[in-house]
Design a protein that fits this description.
The protein is about 35% helix and about 30% strand. The chain is of the alpha/beta class. Helix 3 crosses helix 4, helix 3 packs parallel to helix 5 and helix 4 packs across helix 5. The chain is elongated. It binds adenosine-5'-triphosphate.
Length: about 325
Amino acid sequence: MIEIRGLRKTYRSRKGSVAAVDGVDLRVGEGEVFGVLGQSGAGKSTLLRCVNMLERPDAGTVSVGGLEMTRLRRGQLRLARHGIGMIHQHFALLSSRTVAGNVAFALEVTGAPRAGRKQRVAELLEMVGLTGRAEAYPAQLSGGQKQRVGIARALAARPKVLLSDEATSALDPETTESILRLLHDLNQRLGLTILLITHEMTVVKRICTSAAVMRDGRFVESGTITELLRTPGSELARGLFPLDGPTEVAGATVVDVTVSGPEAEAPIIAELARRFASDVRILGGSVERLAATRAGRWRIALPGAPDDNREALKFLSERGVVS
Ligand SMILES: Nc1ncnc2c1ncn2[C@@H]1O[C@H](COP(=O)(O)OP(=O)(O)OP(=O)(O)O)[C@@H](O)[C@H]1O
């Protein structure tokens, strides 16, 4: 649905130049929720804004739903943007318009026929759980409600793709959860493809089926969550499941084990104890439900040196990632 190849964008000023996006390749399949995680200044916003051409890339190609965005003329681009909704960290609502007025505005801009607008606004407000707040003004709404208006507005033209620019960063944890639930629900109900940028691991954990870590304009790792969990040393896997517990134990071999999918439900540690190491100790870990899969990660101590545990380590490697 979204395909980006060799994307570059450099900002030049008197102080010098910054390669905000420095050669990014990205593919987001239809119905996928792809999260780009990175710290401030990593280039996430620039990348996102290159998808709907709010920023013009210096090099590379961006195609959305098969349309090569970099080649479109102004009029064509305006039409193409109707198929790409966008939501923002600070909501970007019109303060002088009511909730219904904000949503209706999006319909006006896209040239939707006047006759059906009222009904469509009601439909959109229902979809985001704001029925009953149609006549309120943005100043009378909570942060979560404002973002719901932002989402309704972004979906007005029935886009296939939603771009989310730190949509939950200004919200408290509970409200973040409810907005992520709504986005997940819309993804499932409408088959909406979502590309989001965030600096919060929780967002990736809750709704992303794939993710990338961006640093200094580049992706340092990228893949489906399941693939990343199976990649030894993956930063994202570590971030999704921070492990506490000591990394060294005298007289024992300490290993981290990551499993996903059906393996996360299997009694792996019990089987390990029964077959190889009855004195195995769990030092830390958890099993969690991610958007795409169920996964578990444990730090365990096996009595003896690695050589004494060769069979046990082989058993673990066959079932998950051992690092
Ligand atoms: N319009 C601009 N002019 C000059 N430099 C810019 C411009 N926009 C972004 N930059 C620079 O490009 C780099 C990437 O910025 P970008 O906003 O894309 O990162 P980000 O990961 O989204 O961070 P943040 O979450 O803080 O916005 C930064 O060094 C930033 O200062």
